[in-house]
């Protein structure tokens, strides 16, 4: 991604510390089988469960010392799996959200639009997004969901000239997006009893620290082995960044900040020790 091999660098760090590492693409990506377009986060979690079962079938793997590290969506998949599997010994959440999917997108819109937009324009866009999210997650036939959402965009275009295209609507109608918008990470985060390390970059513009750090802290408060950390100066991919914008990622020399690699590696080693 963006000219970097983030997960290869992370896997190398862990391998140097003595871990056996299994990396997997999402279904339908790379050489993985299955359909990506029809999959939801729950489907991806079942794929990780299959990966854990594969590791436990190997004689060179200690089945009682398996941990999970996930990034972004993978950071919520990891506790989903660990919550159903008490033999998972640790979870590292890299840029995992602590607030609902729909609220996360609304917060992102609010932050991205603050520059150069009036308060009225920002509130109009947020109101439109909320209405569209409600339409696409409604428990009605797919054609009705699409019709309701399309009409909301058409009304906004007519009332205040808000430009739109069908390309803007299409991703919101996917099974993945519908499940994401309605997803609440709190019950997921409260189920695992294993050690959990939740990390959010200070300059992450996807999973914003201001909203997600407090939410993660509250959700994990009942787990004495959970820790939530804000990593100063790091973006969504845990690189040392200027603003945290995606446009910077390819031009940053480091793939993952050494401080982040050290933290993840040392913490995982500590919590996987016999």
UniProtKB/TrEMBL annotation:
Gene3D superfamilies the UniProt entry points to: alpha/beta hydrolase (3.40.50.1820)
One Pfam family per UniProt: Abhydrolase_6
GO molecular function per UniProt: carboxylic ester hydrolase activity
InterPro entries, alphabetized: AB_hydrolase_1, AB_hydrolase_Est10, AB_hydrolase_fold
Domain called AB hydrolase-1: residue spans: 7-240
PANTHER family, alphabetized: ESTERASE ESTD
Protein name (database record): AB hydrolase-1 domain-containing protein
Source species: Massilia violaceinigra
Phylogenetic placement of the source organism: Bacteria, Pseudomonadati, Pseudomonadota, Betaproteobacteria, Burkholderiales
